[in-house]
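Re: the request from the purification team.
They wanted to know what the chain is likely to look like in 3D before they choose a buffer screen. I agreed to run a prediction and write the result into the notebook, where they can find it.
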Amino acid sequence: MPHYRQNCRVKLAFSLFSQFSVMSSQRRFLFLQGPHGPFFRQIAAALRTSGADVWRVGFNAGDAAFWWRSPGYLPFRDNPDAWPSALADTLRDKQITDIVLYGDTRPIHAEAVRQARATGLRIHVFEEGYLRPYWVTYERGGSNGHSQLRSLSIADMRAHLAQPGQDQPTPPSHWGDMRQHIFYGALYHWFVMFRNASYPQFRPHRALPVRTEAQLYTGRLLMMPIMALLRGLATLRIKAGGYPYHMALLQLEHDSSFQIHSPFRDMESFIDVVIAGFAKGAPAGHHLVFKTHPLENGRKPLRRLIRQAATAQGIAHRVHFVRGGKLARLLDSALSAVTVNSTAGQQVLWRGIPLRIFGAAVYDKPQFVSD
C-alpha cells in the first residue's frame, strides 16, 4: 500500500479541532461519511486522545474498512428512508454534541445538517478543498455554496488577516499526488462492490451504480498513456496557433457543487450557454478552449457534445477540446475564463485573468469575478 501523504491535512485538522479541545471530555462526536482513506480515522484517534467520545456511522463496507479496528463503529444497514429516525435516535442516545462530515449536500449529510441545526449541535464540514489537491477544507456549518465565507466582505477578510498572530501556511511546491486519490478511491469501491453483503440496502448518492463507475474509471486508467499523448498534442497545437484564446473550465457533472449550487441540470446545458455566448460576443479571431476535469471518466461524450454545439453555431474551427491534465500551461496565456463554480476558478484569479462564473462559489465577490 503506497504511503498516503496526508500529514499536512491531518495537522491542519488537528489545529482546527484544538480550538475546542478545552473540556473535550464533555464533547461527543459523531462522524458520518468521510474521504476515501484513513483521514477521518486519524482525526478521531486524536480526539479520543484529548478525552472526547467518538462514534462513526458506516453505510457500506468501504466505510467500515477505513474505520479499521477503531472503536465506536455504528453500521447503518436499513433502508435509506429510515435514516432520519435512526439518526435522531443516535443523536439522542449517544448525547452527541458535534457532527463531523465530508461534504454537506449528499442526502444523508443534508439530513444530518438539518437535524444538527434544529437541535443546536456543532457542524464540522470537511471538503475536497478550495485549494486542491494538497489542502483539505474545514468549515463550521457548511461549505461551498453554504459557506460562511460567502457572507464575508473583502473588507472583513482584510481586517481579519491583518490581525496579529494569523498563521499563513505557505502552499507547497508540489501540489499533492493524484495517484493517492485514485488508489484509495479504487480500494473503497472494491469493498463496496465485493464485500458489501452485510449492507444490502445501501444506495450510493451518485446516479450511476458503483460497478458502472468502476468500469468507466478502469477504462480511463487503461487509456491514460494515450490520453496524455493526445492532451500534449492538443496543448501544443493551441499554444503554437498564434491566436488569442479563452478557456471554459468544465467540472464533474455529478459533483455536489455543480448539482446543488449551480443553475444547470447537466454539463451539456453549460456547454451550450458558453458556446452560444462566445459565438455572439467574441471577436472573430479569438478561439475557445474547453478543458475537462482531471477525474472526468467519460460518462458523457463531452468532446462530441462540444463539437455539435460549436458546429451549430458555425464556430467549430475556433473551438478546441483538451482532456484533463494540468491547467497552468494553457491558463497562463488565456485572455479570460468561464466556469460554473469550479475551485479551478481560483487559479484564474491568482493570475489576474478575468473570470465569469454561473454558480455559487466562495470567491463570488464583485471585486473578483466579472458579470
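For the purification team: The longest strand covers residues 53-58.
Please add any questions underneath this entry.
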